[in-house]
Design a protein that fits this description.
about 400 residues; alpha/beta; Rossmann fold; 8-stranded mixed β-sheet; 5-stranded antiparallel β-sheet; 18 strands; about 40% helix; disordered N terminus; binds S-adenosylmethionine
């Protein structure tokens, strides 16, 4: 059986999963019944993180062929091998260093990085800041299986490190999962898009923008070319500066690397992008209806990298690099990594080839995924020479 949404046909989930979604819907309904329509950020927070029911909190298969989507570290170890070369450069400068990874997914990146870095310059420890209890367990199992010899280096933390540390902070596809507010341009000005409960399920409802949100949107859109037409919808992440300060505040010396799909601001809010960047994934189908099977569906938005650079500025981090994923991987030494596959059996070489194509082709992850490096306390000779950013510098586009 299949279910049709405005733009895609989704397979019907099995009964036990439908029940999870129905329980989550009931919890969201209760909230709306108590307070009236809720901001989209609150809906997204519950849909992704409601204990036991949200997409990242419930113990569902999310990743890989049987899940909803695949990320770069899940394709194989090429991404991690390249990233390791960037980390090695910083490690050589720092000597003793740590790694903090936020939102570690199934733990592949942590395992492959620990393997690759053992060949160069191993970190003192590897801390994982992960919201989802279920994913912590998945990550532990991956690490136990893949790198039992390095397991004593790994720990899971509930809060960002409280005391000063030096090293590398990594966030791959995490910014896209942070909650956002949605807004709409109308003849009366900018309105907030809230979530209401209707006879046929959740619906969008326009509401007056709270003053702080209005100011944030005005500041974001000011300076962009062209006017946004009536009916134009998009998103803004109001919590990014506070989140960035929280997760990187204690990084005394080192580099924070953010890899995600997104754009510089003038592309993010292009007049043609009339429905914003909100995207939902369910069983490898992408659609734009976050009210379909809440709890079973991933909800994310693209990253406004200009907003990340502004947030960095307010946190005392320097924007040391911004480039596409392809150029980052090539700068880190992708060709060298590929050369290392020459001795593999043909079958493995073919699958590595496919992996590299997925990571780098413009129509796959190569262009849509971008990498930003935010540094603190590093010497100038290094901060303008990070390996991954030597081939193309896109900072002028921010
Ligand atoms: C799209 S997955 C990416 C997983 C992994 N980084 C990868 O590339 O495969 C998003 C991850 O971020 C986690 N997450 C989202 N928001 C978070 C937050 N505020 N703090 C810590 N983890 C978060 C989710 O639980 C999940 O592990």
């Amino acid at each position: 059986m299949v279910t049709e949404t405005s733009n895609v046909i989704l397979p019907e989930p099995p009964a036990e999963l439908k029940r999870i979604s129905e329980n989550l819907v009931a919890a969201i309904r209760t909230k709306i019944a108590a307070s009236g329509p809720i901001p989209f950020s609150e809906y997204m927070e519950m849909a992704l993180y409601e204990p036991g029911l949200g997409y990242y909190s419930a113990g569902l298969q999310k990743f890989g062929p049987a899940g909803d989507f695949v990320t770069a570290p899940m394709l194989g170890d090429v991404f991690a091998r390249c990233l390791a070369k960037q980390i090695e450069q910083i490690a050589n400068e720092l000597g003793r260093y740590e790694i903090v990874e936020v939102g570690a997914g199934n733990g592949n990146l942590a395992a492959d990085l620990l393997k690759a870095l053992a060949e160069y310059h191993a970190p003192l420890n590897y801390r994982i800041l992960e919201r989802s209890a279920h994913l912590r367990q998945v990550q532990r199992e991956t690490l136990e299986r893949e790198v039992p010899q390095w397991l004593d280096k790994v720990s899971w933390i509930d809060e960002p490190p409280a005391t000063s540390w030096q090293g590398v902070f990594i966030a791959n596809e995490v910014l896209d999962a942070l909650t956002v507010e949605r807004f709409c341009c109308t003849s009366e000005g900018i309105r907030q898009l809230c979530v209401a409960d209707g006879p046929d399920g959740f619906t969008w409802q326009q509401a007056a923008c709270p003053e702080s949100l209005h100011q944030k949107i005005e500041a974001t859109l000011s300076g962009l070319d062209g006017t946004l037409a009536e009916g134009y919808r998009s998103e803004v992440n109001t919590s990014l500066p506070a989140w960035l300060q929280a997760v990187t505040g204690s990084l005394q010396k080192g580099l924070a690397l953010f890899i995600d799909y997104g754009y510089p601001r003038h592309e993010y809010y292009l007049p043609q992008r009339r429905n914003g960047t909100l995207i939902c994934h369910y069983r490898h189908r992408a659609h734009d209806d976050p009210f379909m099977y809440p709890g079973l569906t991933d909800i994310s938005t693209s990253v406004d990298f200009t907003a990340l650079a502004e947030a960095a500025d307010s946190c005392g981090l320097e924007v040391n690099g911004y480039t596409s994923q392809t150029m980052f991987l090539l700068g880190c030494g992708l060709e060298e990594v590929i050369n290392g596959f020459q001795l593999l059996p043909e079958k493995d070489r073919i699958s590595k080839n496919i992996e590299v194509r997925k990571l780098t082709l413009p129509g796959e992850m190569g262009e849509r995924f971008q990498v930003m490096a935010l540094g603190r306390g590093l010497p100038e000779h290094l901060s303008e020479q990070f390996r991954g950013f030597t081939l193309t510098d896109l900072r002028y586009r921010l």
